[in-house]
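Below is a filled-in request sheet from our internal design queue. Each sheet records the structural input a requester submitted and the sequence that came back. We keep these sheets so that new team members can see what a complete request looks like end to end.

REQUESTER: design group, bay 2
PRIORITY: normal
MODE: inverse folding
CHAIN LENGTH: 239
BACKBONE (tokenized):
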């Protein structure tokens, strides 16, 4: 192969890394060789290596940890085909290990949560899931999310299915969501006496609030309110 022909060398590197990932030769969460080592292995420039890694990340084969390198993305995060706020990946991109703790899981049957019922056009007789999760970056709590789901759209969710798992990828896979669109908006505020209990933060520290809505065939079926602190918003908002 002509080493001066950049495209074939780039494509060879890309195809070979994809083959290793898809075959399991490179395992989930396994670190890829350094950019320098990849350049030597495939006899390409650093620019070519970075171009290939960027495409692998875009195609959801790998994720990056700041200051640590590139790692193989878990298969349950690949090819979902729907854009959403991926908090777990954002924490990994910070160079930290994510952990998800389920704080609350209930099915509301008493007609409460009027605001959510109005948003989802539900009656007092309709059931609603209420799910609360706290995300940790290493040992520090950085992201709290309270999610409401329309029970009739997501029947039969089990506690074991969402314990320690990110919610949206699970919903997409189990319920074959093809048309759902997630729309988020964020606003800046400050940590208060009540919110500081969730995080290792002081009153008056910066805090970002995020509202995320999932619309399926013009019906609101997913609604979440989240709060996040520290460096995470810089990685999260641009996901």
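RETURNED SEQUENCE:
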């Amino acid at each position: 192969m002509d080493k001066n022909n950049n495209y074939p060398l780039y494509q060879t590197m890309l195809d070979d890394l994809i083959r290793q990932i898809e075959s399991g030769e490179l395992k989930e969460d396994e670190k890829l060789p350094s950019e320098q080592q990849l350049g030597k292995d495939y006899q390409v420039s650093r620019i070519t290596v970075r171009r290939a890694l960027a495409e692998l990340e875009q195609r959801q084969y790998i994720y990056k940890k700041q200051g640590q390198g590139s790692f193989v993305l878990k298969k349950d995060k690949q090819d979902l085909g729907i854009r959403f706020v991926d908090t777990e990946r954002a924490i990994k991109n910070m160079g930290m290990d994510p952990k998800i703790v389920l704080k609350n899981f209930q099915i509301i049957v008493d007609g409460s949560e009027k605001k959510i019922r109005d948003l989802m056009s539900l009656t007092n007789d309709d059931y609603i899931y209420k799910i609360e999760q706290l995300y940790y970056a290493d040992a520090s709590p950085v992201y709290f999310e309270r999610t409401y789901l329309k029970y009739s759209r997501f029947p039969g969710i089990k506690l074991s299915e969402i314990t320690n798992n990110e919610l949206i990828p699970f919903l997409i896979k189990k319920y074959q969501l093809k048309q759902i669109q997630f729309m988020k908006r964020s606003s800046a505020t400050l940590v208060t006496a009540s919110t500081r209990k969730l995080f290792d933060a002081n009153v008056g520290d910066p805090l970002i609030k995020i509202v995320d809505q999932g619309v399926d065939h013009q019906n609101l079926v997913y609604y979440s309110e989240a709060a996040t602190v520290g460096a995470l918003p810089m990685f999260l908002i641009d996901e």
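SHEET NOTES:
- Helices lie at 6-23, 35-42, 46-58, 87-93, 114-120, 159-162, 167-174, 232-236.
- The chain has two domains: 6-75, 80-236.
FILED BY: M.R.
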